[in-house]
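WARN retry 2 of 3 for item q-0093 after timeout on previous attempt; input resubmitted unchanged.
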Amino acid sequence: MSESTARSAALVLAVLAVACGKPVDPSGKEDATFTKASMAGAPAPTGEDRPLSADLAVEPVSMLVSFNRLKTADKLQEALNKKPGQFSHIDLDKDATPDLLTVADRATKDGHAFEIRVRPATGEFVVATMLFDPEWSYLGHYDGVMGGAASTTARPLPAAPQPGAPPVAPPVVATPPAVVPSAAPTQVAAPVAPAPGAPAIAEAPAPAPGVGAVQAVPAGSAQPVTPTKP
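OK item q-0093 returned
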C-alpha cells in the first residue's frame, strides 16, 4: 500500500470514528459488542480471555477491502494468506505457525459484512465480523459473530458451515464385536466297567407297588407289627 493511500485511509477512518455511531441492539440501544472504526490505537487486550480479534490487524484488513477493492470473500481470503503472519498472529493449535485465515460473506441490511475466521488443525473458528456501508467504507467490527458473543482465545466460537456446503460427517470408529463367554460343557460321568473276573453287582430291586413302610415296634413289646398303608 502506497503512502498516499495509507494517508487517505487514515483520514477516512478518523472521519468515520466521529461520524458513525454504533449499531443498535433489538432494544434500540447502541450495541456494546460492536467496536466502531477508530485510529485511536488503544493497546490490545492480553490474557487468555482476550478476543481473537486482538491478534488480527483489523484496520489494515479493512483497507484491503476499501482501497484495494478486495470486495469478495475469495479475493480477501487469498490476500490475507499470501504472507502468513502479516495480518494475523493467531495460533490456536500452538504449532508456532500462524493459522490459516478464511473469509465468509454475511448478510446485513445496511451494507456489507465479512466474517473473518481462523482454521487451525483443530477446526474452524470465528475471529471477527467486519461491517462496511453500501459504498464499502469501513464501519467497525464485532469480536465474534455479528450481534452475538465474543470469540476469545480461551473460548473460540466454532464457525457455522457455509450455506450449501456439505455437512462434515464425524469419523467412524469401528467397534470390535462383543465377546460372549461360552458356557462350560456339562460333563457326564461315563459308566465304570467292572474289572475282568469281578462278580457283577446286582441292582437293588425296586419296591413292590402298593407295599408300604413297616412301623417299628419297641423291643419286648407285645404289640403286633402292622404295615403302614401308603
